Protein 1
Amino acid sequence: MDMKLYGYSFLHCFLILLFIFFILILSGFFNSTSFSIFSRSNFQSSISVPAVQLQTLVSHSDQIHDVHSANSSYTSPVNQFRNSTAIRKISKLISREEELLEQGLARARASIRKAGTSSVIVSSIAGVNRSDVDRVVVYRNRAAFYRSYLEMERRFKVYVYSEGDLPIVHDGPCKDIYTIEGRFIQEMEHGARRFRTTDPRRAHVYFMPFSVTWMVKYLYKPLTYDLTPLRQFVSDYVRVVSTKYPFWNRTCGADHFMLACHDWGPHASRANPFLYNTSIRVLCNANTSEGFNPRKDVSLPEIHLYNGNFPPQLLSPPPANTSRPYLAFFAGGLHGPIRPLLVNQWKDRDSDLRVFEYLPKDLDYYSFMLQSKFCLCPSGHEVASPRIVEAIYAECVPVILSNYYVLPFSDVLRWDAFSVQVNVSEIPRLKEVLSSVPEDKYKNLKEGLRAVRRHFVLNQPAKRFDVFYMILHSIWLRRINLRLA
Ligand SMILES: *[C@@H]1O[C@H](CO)[C@@H](O)[C@H](O)[C@H]1NC(C)=O
Ligand SMILES: *[C@@H]1O[C@H](CO)[C@@H](O)[C@H](O)[C@H]1NC(C)=O
Ligand SMILES: *[C@@H]1O[C@H](CO)[C@@H](O)[C@H](O)[C@H]1NC(C)=O
Ligand SMILES: *[C@@H]1O[C@H](CO)[C@@H](O)[C@H](O)[C@H]1NC(C)=O
Ligand SMILES: *[C@@H]1O[C@H](CO)[C@@H](O)[C@H](O)[C@H]1NC(C)=O
Ligand SMILES: *[C@@H]1O[C@H](CO)[C@@H](O)[C@H](O)[C@H]1NC(C)=O
Ligand SMILES: *[C@@H]1O[C@H](CO)[C@@H](O)[C@H](O)[C@H]1NC(C)=O
Ligand SMILES: *[C@@H]1O[C@H](CO)[C@@H](O)[C@H](O)[C@H]1NC(C)=O
């Protein structure tokens, strides 16, 4: 029965989009320079490091405003809903708050752009030696990132919906492979005070704190592969918050976000077409071939905590001069399409390339990571792998073997400064590819790993620049390109 309702509102949103698109074309909107403040050419004119990829999105509310100003006879669902006097009052309040919020965001954008284009500020903002900046180029644009991060700390406000009950909402797994789901929800609910607001009118984004992993645990019937109960839950959740509050309908969910590390996160988000197509989805399973859209969605790093703890062997970085006798290492099950290629090709083939299926009990997984120069990180059942973060900790250069994977924080970080991507078709030449990495390049990659490590650390409570704040920053980046006024 829901599909009828969604189909109806989807059609309307689509029509508004189309209509606005025409208006924008007629008014020459796409030529205006103010809109494309983050275009790459702006950055590249003054600095050589590529810009933070801040894409521009046309927000639904932009369109809604334009519909008003054009005195159109077309009535959008939002206008219909604003026609009722009670709602009209709320909307007036909302729009005044909206205006203030958007003014703040416009200032943030301007200051990020200024930082990103001025090479003088690169060293002064970052508070580092200019030569360090040139050497450790792990950031796409360090100054723009730093400024953006500070602006986020200063302004960003998240409203966490209180709807829904434990265990599926307001909680999530805090150990094992989907840890990040629960730890983020916990931090958002109980920590992160400066980013939370209890007044939804002051929020820049709205968080729906349900856990897909707990849905699988409590709602899914094992071995049925029937994901309907998950989708039903998510669909109900969106219906409740969009009926009870005016915020979802205001933007068709574009300023709302969900977060899931479970493989089925993307499937659960299909429950509502706007959640899937418009909202910010923060997902470990960031497979562009399955609808992940890096312009609006956020790739979430997968972090495996055994019984809630990170492997102690990896907690403090090994000395840089630790000898690493093996060229590369992998051990793991033959999940997905890529790992069989790797294991069939390299298992027991070469004493430099230590490739195992499951590691024999008497051998230690993390010692291998610490003794290898490169750690192979092939996709399994889904694109993400906890090996990537473990390799970063072990200062074992990650070798990304995957298709359609959008790497975490790649809107800010230059992954080629601290990892190696090898095309799956090159697996037979893996040894050749890795042994041909020059020694000084390898040194730089390791330095890069040291520089990015702090962004992948999971602290409780969260600390500045750690993984929690980097996730939040990715959400902030998606949001500041969405202009509601
Ligand atoms: C739109 O309509 C309002 C009142 O109906 C009028 O005051 C305003 O001038 C109109 N704007 C345009 C651009 O026609
Ligand atoms: C808005 O309300 C007025 C008066 O109540 C009504 O005449 C009008 O048709 C309504 N407009 C829409 C689009 O529902
Ligand atoms: C900056 O780095 C260079 C080269 O490493 C060094 O010679 C210089 O003293 C450093 N400057 C400061 C202010 O640390
Ligand atoms: C938002 O839209 C849906 C469907 O279009 C509607 O059922 C709901 O009542 C609206 N929300 C509010 C707060 O009016
Ligand atoms: C996303 O939007 C497209 C139309 O652009 C639609 O065909 C598709 O069904 C939507 N996806 C979902 C999961 O609703
Ligand atoms: C590594 O460096 C430390 C000092 O930085 C030194 O004490 C140690 O002997 C070195 N180890 C090797 C294997 O070179
Ligand atoms: C990514 O999506 C494509 C298309 O559905 C699929 O063929 C591929 O196996 C997925 N990748 C992984 C690692 O799951
Ligand atoms: C990987 O290799 C295949 C086959 O050689 C090629 O078609 C594809 O474009 C390559 N992908 C990338 C990202 O280079």
Note: The mean pLDDT is 80.
Protein 2
Amino acid sequence: MTGVVVCVLVLTVFTVCPVLPWTMRQVVAAERADRFVQVVAHADDDLLFMSPDLFGAVLGGRVTTTIYLTAGEGPTGWEDDRDPREYAGDRQAGIRAAYAYLAGVRDVWRTRILQLGRLPVRVDTLAASPRIRLVFAGLPDGGDPRADGGRDALQRMWERGACVRRFTGPCPHPCVRREDVVATLRALYDRYRPTVLRTLDPNPQDWHGDHTDHTISAKFAAEAARGMKLKMLAYRGYTMTGWPANLSWQASRLKEAVFQVYRRHDYRAASGWRYAAWLKRMYPIRPEAFGP
Ligand SMILES: [Zn+2]
């Protein structure tokens, strides 16, 4: 379905604009004239699991769009006193700041809401580098027991046809089903015409080794791309934790520098040994992992 702009907002966020050290830019290979779409579950999955591959398009000024299916609120506000909507907003602010930092421009974005079928999405476009977009679908995080039907909303939508209302979003909230998510992703692909689609691992060997939101987000992304001519790349999520560190010192430093910009906005990511492990690793998966 063709996207219709139902409302336009302008978001202006000014921060001091840090500059990446010149030497760090050299660790990221220049990309060719591809257009990239990433589909992930949470607003740091791209930084943790698809980086530094992700960075080439941003640093090279290519067209790149990252789609975050969930609001990433987790159990915030359920197991502590924080406001979960504020936290979801913090995560969005964090990922915007990280991309602006990587692009070397001010953290100023233009925001609009696209009504794509039954699942509207928020699209933030980096003002000084409008080829960079972040799309937030606002579905409930798998760790949120307040979602319609309880935890694991994405998984229940994928496997059992559950109808679930979004957790965040400025427009009315009808519940949406698997086919609505697929239709919105398909509409976003049609709009942004990726030649390369990056996802998390849709078929981890150890299902319980990764966050189910990661796995299901990859299945949604692949389902929406069915029949389209594009290159699909998948990346291991939590399951890479025990694998050997495989990034160079420089690549790891760059990954850490970008993630630290995000991390200042995410109290749940403030500590944890697994983050240190992920910042030293990136594991792409062979394309056949997508299967039929
Ligand atoms: Zn995640």
Note: The longest helix spans residues 84-103.
